[in-house]
Amino acid sequence: MGYRILIVDDEPDVVKLTTLRLERSGYDISIATDGDMAVLVAKQVVPDLILLDIRLPKLNGYEVFRRIREDPQLAKIPIIFATADDSGEVPENVQRLGAEGYLIKPFETAVLVKKIKQFLP
């Protein structure tokens, strides 16, 4: 059994492509397509890492991050933001929140896997 990664994104093509890439790299994947669902799925599967979009329906990624960090069972899960927003606000927000990092979409599979391997042996 590989590590479980929760992909949180509302774009079906992004979810499909990222899932395919990560499954080929040996990871087990769970999916959530909005902020509320992300928190529920995280509680159900307790993933080893979360790849979290910022712009989501219902709850944005920053609010999802906050709720996950407030849950003692989930608080230590590494969270990497994945966003198409390449403004200067993202690095500032990621650092302020204490997230493990971020990637700007679209990203190469090798870059994604390298980032994940920083947190999962």
Describe this structure in words.
The chain has 121 residues and is of the alpha/beta class. It has one domain (4-117): Rossmann fold (3-Layer(aba) Sandwich). Helices cover 43% and strands 20% of the residues. It contains 5 helices and 5 strands; from the N terminus they run E-H-E-H-E-H-E-H-E-H. The protein has helices at residues 12-24, 35-45, 61-70, 89-97, 109-117, and strands spanning 4-8, 28-32, 49-53, 79-83, 101-104. A 5-stranded parallel β-sheet has the order 2-1-3-4-5, sandwiched between helices. Strand 1, helix 1 (12-24) and strand 2 (28-32) form a beta-alpha-beta unit. Helix 2 (35-45) packs parallel to helix 3. The chain is globular. The chain starts with a strand and ends with a helix. The mean pLDDT is 94.
Shape: globular
Main β-sheet description = 5 strands, parallel
Whole-number radius of gyration? Answer: 13 Å
Overall structural class, as computed from helix and strand content, comes to: alpha/beta
Number of strands: 5
CATH class: Alpha Beta
Outline of the structure:
The chain has helices at 12-24, 35-45, 61-70, 89-97, 109-117; strands at 4-8, 28-32, 49-53, 79-83, 101-104.
